[in-house]
Write a structure and sequence with these properties.
238 residues, alpha/beta, Spore Coat Polysaccharide Biosynthesis Protein SpsA, Chain A, three-stranded antiparallel beta sheet, 7 helices, disordered N terminus
């Protein structure tokens, strides 16, 4: 359902860049999922925007030092529940400190896949979670799966594990190219920072090769994703 040129966007995270984010995404239906402890003037401003819905909840308690992904999963799930209630079958999730040129990414998006920027070959190998999109029901299942894992593993490792091992989902597509335009406001870097990793062959932006780890040997008998993907239980090898 919905116009796929104007897909709904879940903005996930803190409201530090609330003016930049609301201005950039003013032409899209957006759900901003964040915490009820955010500054009230920020929340009031977001609520005043006609195209923004504000979804608030208590921030979850972090058990492990590398468990920041829990913030992502809880907020993203809350946002996608709203998309589901509104009848959308596909949605986009963007960090609240990222400005993404949506048309440039949609031109590479596969609407029956999980879409993200690419695969990092560090640690045990993992999918990048700065930006992702998928069918709404799949996203809800992914987020629920991530929330349910009690592990010290880093967030992207857990996300990748849930997709490949729990859900057995292997329809994965990458959307990072030189023409994919975005800015990470917090760190003031853009897509070229990550394309340098692609050119250095430590980051993959295509699934037509084996998605390896530089530190763990995997077997590949099904497709180009590992047969038995692992949780690190820690940050993992560097």
């Amino acid at each position: 359902m919905g116009n796929r040129k104007k897909l709904p966007i879940v903005i996930q995270g803190l409201t530090d860049y609330y003016k930049e984010i609301t201005e950039h995404y003013k032409d899209y239906e957006c759900v901003w999922a964040t915490w009820n402890t955010e500054p009230q003037d920020h929340l009031d401003y977001i609520k005043s925007q006609d195209n923004f819905t504000l979804v608030l909840c208590d921030a979850p308690k972090i058990q492990y030092s590398e468990h920041y992904g829990l913030y992502t999963w809880v907020a993203t799930l809350n946002g996608f529940k709203v998309l589901k209630e509104r009848g959308y079958d596909f949605g986009i999730r963007v960090r609240s400190d990222f400005i993404v040129d949506i048309p440039s990414i949609l031109s590479l998006t596969k609407f029956d896949h999980f879409n993200c920027f690419g695969w990092d070959t560090g640690s045990v190998g993992y999918l990048c979670d700065y930006y992702f999109s998928s069918p709404v029901d799949l996203m809800c299942d992914i987020m629920k799966g991530c929330i349910g894992i009690d592990s010290e593993s880093h967030a992207e490792n857990i996300l990748t594990y849930v997709l490949l091992e729990q859900l057995k989902w292997r329809k994965i597509n990458y959307t990072l190219t030189d023409d994919t335009k975005f800015i990470w406001l917090k760190k003031e870097i853009d897509e070229q920072h990550y394309m340098e990793h692609v050119r250095a062959d430590t980051w993959y932006n295509t699934t037509d090769r084996k998605q390896i780890s530089r530190f763990v040997d995997y077997s590949f008998t099904k497709d180009n994703f590992p047969d038995n993907y692992q949780l690190t239980y820690k940050v993992g090898p560097k």
